[in-house]
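Appendix B, Record 12. Input sequence as logged:
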Amino acid sequence: MTKTAFLGLGHYVPSKVVTNDDLAQMFDTSDEWIQQRTGIKERRYIEESGIGPSDLAVPAVQMACKNAGIEVSDIDAIIFATLSPDFNFPGSGCFLGDKLGLPGVPALDVRNQCSGFLYGLQIADAWIKCGMYKRVALVGGEVHSTALDFSDEGRDVTVLFGDGAACAILGPIEEGNRGVIDVEVHADGSGAKDLWLEGPASAYKPRITHEMIDNKTVHPSMNGRHVFRWATSKMPEVSRSVLERNNVAIEDLDWVIPHQANKRINEFVAQKLEVAPEKVIHNIEKYGNTTAASIPLALSEAIQDGRVKEGDLVLLPTFGSGFTWGAALVRL
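Logged structural output:
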């Protein structure tokens, strides 16, 4: 039976490093305060205006293709997961396809925020298993820095986010035990306004006003306690569901690579799942929360530095705005 395999991964982050001390020069915070609450030490921001997530995705896709042993021209479908598209329309996947020189290749944008990579993985898995496409570039790319509120009022959200992109090249394999074993995703819109960006919005006429800017509804907002409570409940729940359905025990896992939203959330989830801390991969201290890019970015880095190897069994849990959440079980 055809299975979907990770053929190669790649990632890219901007060169501009923004430390906690840098943020402390802009609003009332400190390195100690941020690290205690989030585990973040620094993050990356785009270097100048005019750089969108599709720009960050280009070198990530090129790196993934090289590691997969294919040419960029071999890609026959693009799935682009992002909550920060280059523009309201068209989708970032279309911009990326043009920048990669892939005219005619279909491009689908997935707007499921921190869970976007797993939603995209479920779609790519179905496409590949049914024979529709053979080389799918699944991309997570974000530019958060241009939407953040660099004031005392916005600090709780601003300290969390960074810019970056990552890509997985997915394709069919017929033999061996590698491949995507299972992907489970969920959503519950009752928590939508606990983590959202209200404006501009097509629900309002006009879509943007000076009042929205003055009231700061053009910046993301979050009910941190509510998000923490949901994340530490839903991530273990969906992880157990995927593991039990596939008769996999926690101790069978080689690695757990969770969405990098908050290191405290991930530590809490690992404790609930009774996963050994040394099996949990974090890189949030370097990049902050890159939402749709965070899981593939962490996975790509871990493969590059030799921690994650071919044949490893990996659990990928996530939670984010929507609320959306999910988990994937993959044999690399």
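The mean pLDDT is 98.
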